[in-house]
Design goal:
globular, 9 helices, Rossmann fold, two-stranded parallel sheet
Length: about 190
């Protein structure tokens, strides 16, 4: 909702989840390396990453997670930077949507500001369950391996609480859009 609203207001959006999904779709650039590293059992008949199988392995085995990240993170970073460069000329500012910003290293040094979209742990778990069709235990296991809410908030320059009605959320996002537009204009001059 927040990135879609910023985009509707004129920001360019580069979403690292979209990039990751493209890299692991049938014919995706990461698939040969993933198959070589993990074997054909992690590739669907269509040639995409078997997400359920990979999720089970990477959350159970830290080494598997590191090997997958070693393949994906450089590719995601490169594609994100290329997309952001292309988008920079056609929008007042570019928003990088990075769900695992705190966990994934040095993104903070590559951006001017960090916006955290925050909600309670209960809301986060419920939303992930609904979006991913995973049971509560599986979602809790995933969330436990991510940065804590406090860590995300500590990394933030700006916070939007996504627990209220859509109008309140839209109003807050509109204020941020004006701020980001002014800041970007000041940097250009």
């Amino acid at each position: 909702m927040v990135s879609a609203r910023l985009q509707a207001l004129g920001a360019a959006i580069v979403d690292t989840d979209v990039i990751a999904h493209a890299l692991t779709a049938p014919g995706g650039a990461a698939m040969p390396a993933i198959e070589e590293q993990f074997g054909p059992d992690f590739v669907t008949a269509e040639g995409a990453l078997d997400r359920a199988r990979m999720r089970a392995v990477v959350f159970a085995t830290p080494d598997a997670r590191r090997r997958l990240e070693a393949i994906l993170h450089p590719m995601i970073r490169s594609a994100t930077e290329a997309d952001a460069r292309r988008a920079a000329g056609r929008a007042p500012y570019v928003v990088l949507v990075i769900p695992l910003l705190v966990e994934s290293g040095n993104w903070r040094t590559r951006v001017a500001r960090v916006l955290v979209v925050d909600c309670s742990d209960a809301t986060q778990i419920e939303r992930v369950q609904r979006r991913s069709n995973l049971d509560e235990r599986a979602v809790r296991d995933i969330v436990a391996q991510q940065a804590t809410r406090q860590q995300r908030l500590a990394a933030a320059d700006d916070v939007v609480v996504n627990e209220t009605d859509l109008q309140s959320l839209a109003t807050r996002v509109e204020r941020l859009h004006h701020l980001y537009s002014r800041l970007a204009a000041a940097r250009r001059h």
